[in-house]
Amino acid sequence: MKNPRSALCKTSIMASSDIFKVFGDQLLDSTINAFDNLFLQLLLKASQGKRFVCEEADRALNAMVKSVTPLPLLNKLRPYVSHSNPRVRAKAAITISKSVSKMGLEGMNEFGLVSLVQMAADF
Questions:
Q1: pLDDT tens digits, residue range 16-45?
Q2: Could you give all domains of the chain from N- to C-terminal order, each with its CATH number?
Q3: What does the record list as coiled-coil region(s) (predicted)?
Q4: Which residue of 35, 70, 111, 122 shows the fewest CB atoms closer than 10 Å?
């Protein structure tokens, strides 16, 4: 995804969508920080200027939200609330919003309503 060629970048983003669909929660169990690096790159690509790369990164983020259980995903998303790039924070906020809406009230209570409100306030 770090390749400057847009077509190659878009193809790698499409591959990450497939990875989310196939592996789902197993990506969060890994001991290496590969998921964190992948997620950061997706946020960066979703917030850049090239429209077709941005749209594909948004689709990959949506595939991630659909494929990964919301509670552990929110724990992974929490550090991006305070990212230095405001566009990355905005994309993280959208992803958190979609994940929270997937949770339901029981999941929100399990995560902690106070924590959710604090995250929203930090944005």
A1: 999 888 888 887 776 567 778 888 899 999
A2: 6-122 (1.25.10.10)
A3: none
A4: 122
